[in-house]
Design goal:
Blueprint: H1 3-11, E1 16-20, H2 46-58, E2 64-68, H3 76-88, E3 92-97, H4 108-115, E4 119-123, H5 126-132, H6 134-146, E5 151-156, H7 161-173, E6 182-186, E7 219-221, E8 225-227, H8 232-235, E9 244-246, H9 250-261, H10 264-271, H11 294-307, H12 310-318
Length: 339
């Protein structure tokens, strides 16, 4: 899948989920938004992971599962299990990796995983390159293409970085590289180790935040934690309690995902954005508060609901209806990526 197809699925209610496979990562980049380390925890209970994968494989309307962490390729058994199960069930697999595994010869198990992935996002910003080097990145690109996959180079949009990535792709793949690979500019996240590296964003008016895409795509962590978005702090135990649920088996995961799909607050945030809340009774205070990120606005809205449960009932009456995810075989409308 190309980048616009991945983003289109992310915008479609119920069409995608993020599988947070591990907290572990051997790379140790300074900008890591989850402070992943080589000794961080990972999926020790493969029986539970198998239950979670069963639920994802059987879930109606689910089209794609993105696999992230931590570094998924640090977990050979768990990653192989996940990709085999999801690919076998006809789900598109999107992998996020730093490419640390790319040596002179790619191990056979990694080649097998790459061959079943539809899209592979490679972190190629200056922080990854400082730890891994350009030769390893070139090998990772070649390995993805050699396995029949589609690489997307994810680059933090800092001065000179995108131009450097374009030059690398031109040298590696030729002037027509865009037919075989893509670039995806991202913003730095002041979270995890990145909180000490990047300045926090300045507060902004509520109306400057658009709809929240991750509110349409829950995250399933390897230990059964299910969150209503991809916020790193929420995944690792912070933020509003309402954005975290617990699943101990396939039925529990299905129930958690159903709960988020029908959550009126998340539906409003995903469809209209946080500014749509301010005119509603009980939420007027949001308009007068400066928010640094859409996550800050979301958390403030959740605190409002926790403090006054009647506001949740009102949201249930006003939340927009959702268009169901496209059924298998239907084409999902494409959307242009927005850096």
């Amino acid at each position: 899948m190309r980048l616009d197809q991945v983003l289109a699925l992310r915008r479609t209610p119920g069409a995608s989920v993020l599988l947070y496979l591990t907290d572990r990562c051997p790379v140790g980049c300074a900008h890591c938004s989850v402070s992943a380390r080589p000794d961080s925890p990972g999926p020790a209970d493969l029986t539970l992971l198998g239950e979670l994968l069963d639920a994802l494989a059987d879930r109606p309307g689910l089209r794609a599962v993105a696999v992230s962490g931590g570094e998924p390729f640090a977990e050979r058994r768990a990653l192989t299990l996940a990709v085999d199960r999801l690919h076998g069930a006809g789900r598109a697999v999107v992998l996020f990796t730093a490419g640390h595994w790319a040596g002179p010869r790619t191990p056979r198990w990694i080649t097998g995983v790459l061959a079943k992935a539809d899209t592979v996002f490679l972190g190629v910003d200056g922080y990854h390159l400082a730890r891994l080097g350009q030769v390893r990145l070139r090998r990772a690109i070649a390995a993805v293409l050699g396995a029949g996959g589609h690489p997307v180079l994810q680059v933090i949009d800092q001065p000179g970085r995108l131009d450097a990535a374009r030059r690398l792709l031109t040298e590696e793949l030729g002037p027509d590289w865009s037919a075989r690979a893509e670039l995806y500019p991202t913003r730095p996240l002041a979270a995890g180790r990145g909180a000490g590296l990047f300045p926090a964003p300045e507060p902004r008016p509520l109306g400057e935040f658009g709809p929240c895409l991750p509110a349409r795509a829950p995250t399933v962590r390897y230990d059964g934690t299910v969150t209503g978005c991809c916020n790193e702090t929420v995944i690792t135990g912070g933020g509003p309690r309402a954005l975290r649920r617990r699943a101990v088996d396939a039925a529990g995961l299905a129930a958690a995902l159903d709960g988020y799909a029908h959550d009126p607050l998340l539906r409003i945030l995903a469809t209209a954005g946080p500014a749509a809340l301010a005119p509603l009774p009980g939420f007027a205070h949001l308009a007068g508060t400066g928010h640094r990120t859409v996550c800050d606005a979301c958390w403030a809205a959740h605190r409002t609901v926790e403090a006054e449960p009647r506001t949740a009932a009102l949201l249930g009456l006003l939340a927009p209806g959702e268009r169901p995810a496209a059924a298998d075989g239907e084409e999902v409308a494409r959307c242009r990526p927005k850096p």
